[in-house]
Amino acid sequence: MATLKYSRQRASIKEYLLNTHEHPTADTVYLHVKEEFPNISLGTVYRNLNLLADMGEAQKITTPVGGDRFDGRTDFHYHVICTCCGNVSDLELSSGHIAEINQLADRHFDGRVDSHSMIFHGLCPECLRNSRKLS
Amino acid sequence: MATLKYSRQRASIKEYLLNTHEHPTADTVYLHVKEEFPNISLGTVYRNLNLLADMGEAQKITTPVGGDRFDGRTDFHYHVICTCCGNVSDLELSSGHIAEINQLADRHFDGRVDSHSMIFHGLCPECLRNSRKLS
DNA sequence: GTCTATGCAAAGAGTTTGCAGATGT
DNA sequence: ACATCTGCAAACTCTTTGCATAGAC
Hints:
homodimer
């Protein structure tokens, strides 16, 4: 089995993920890390994002539109995609509520339900404020 | 605005979606409809699947892995992806429960939550039975 | 006859991968 | 020294699109 070896590129990618709340796409990560490593390639970014996700040091967020997004937070939480501006915000529910959703589903299913991935749609705080001004 | 015109290809695609529970990918739909229309092209299948989804006569299911899947059922319901065989099963929750999830999220969010898309992970009935035999 | 839908093939977005050389341990 | 990681580019998967022709109304 392959041993993981340090790389400045991966460290930079991880640091960026930990310091942003933007839930960037791979391409956004690429453009950002490119400022520190002008020669970095998109392939390297993808390889490291997938590595981090596999190690549980980042989360991959599958969205219905556009590319996947990445999150440096590793604890389980949800995301809200703003139907107005497209931004992705974090949303916390207690682990009790999370487990309840799985149990609820499991009770209504012939097989077995272990987990779920859910993405909410709505308005981010800023777009909500703007929509109120207009009315 | 463009008027929708009948086409045998679209009718066949819709009929297939209504008569299967397999939640096929576009490619699976293509291979099936090809039996009736050997010259049909994948582009036509995609165009019609998107048309049906836009008209609310089918649902597009975004999955974390592999291509999107399509469902002829138009009422709101959930899906379970089997982590063992990859099949997609239907799962019903009452509209009360569905609304409750949105309200729960809305209460914990600064912006506004309108809806959600959720996919469950677990074992389909068949794989669950098989896993019990082994233990 | 007119406008939409089709088949085809090319292009597009997003992502992965093979390889030779650079880098970490 | 040796294994892993990088940059590059090509390849790959899934999906959309432009265009000439066939089909619906």
